[in-house]
């Protein structure tokens, strides 16, 4: 019973992150936060799976490195969008202007 709870918590976190990502499309910052929550839940699931196989140290650190790079790239896109358009609303952003 306890093992089922350990495996269902990251899956529940992932599904809640996907629901927030789909439902909240007004601001870029809220979408980036929901993507980071999804990455955090995937890391949690991956860490639990690899610790079950007793091989968690190397690949989990690689995953964290790539997720930090993904977060920095998202923040740089957010900063450049705010500098060029003045806000992070998707309604004021048009692909044809670029």
TrEMBL record:
What topology does it adopt in the membrane? Multi-pass membrane protein
EC number of the protein: 7.1.1.2
Subcellular localization, as worded in the UniProt entry: Mitochondrion inner membrane; Mitochondrion membrane
Annotated GO biological processes are: ATP synthesis coupled electron transport
Q: What class of enzyme is it?
A: translocase
Tell whether Transmembrane is among the UniProt keywords.
yes
Query: What is the documented function of this protein?
Result: Core subunit of the mitochondrial membrane respiratory chain NADH dehydrogenase (Complex I) which catalyzes electron transfer from NADH through the respiratory chain, using ubiquinone as an electron acceptor. Core subunit of the mitochondrial membrane respiratory chain NADH dehydrogenase (Complex I) that is believed to belong to the minimal assembly required for catalysis. Complex I functions in the transfer of electrons from NADH to the respiratory chain. The immediate electron acceptor for the enzyme is believed to be ubiquinone.
Which regions span the lipid bilayer? 6-24, 31-52, 58-82
Matches recorded under Pfam families: Oxidored_q2
Official protein name in the record: NADH-ubiquinone oxidoreductase chain 4L
Q: Which organism is it from?
A: Empis separata
Identify the Gene3D superfamilies for this entry.
Answer: 1.10.287.3510
**GO MF assignments:** NADH dehydrogenase (ubiquinone) activity; oxidoreductase activity, acting on NAD(P)H
Q: Which domain of life is it from?
A: Eukaryota
Q: Name one GO cellular component term.
A: mitochondrial inner membrane
Catalytic activity entry? a ubiquinone + NADH + 5 H(+)(in) = a ubiquinol + NAD(+) + 4 H(+)(out)
What keywords are annotated for this sequence in UniProt?
Electron transport, Membrane, Mitochondrion, Mitochondrion inner membrane, NAD, Respiratory chain, Translocase, Transmembrane, Transmembrane helix, Transport, Ubiquinone
Decide whether keyword rRNA-binding is in the record: no
Q: List, alphabetically, the InterPro entries matched.
A: NADH_UbQ_OxRdtase_chain4L/K (IPR001133), NUOK/Mnh_C1-like (IPR039428)
Family listed: Belongs to the complex I subunit 4L family.
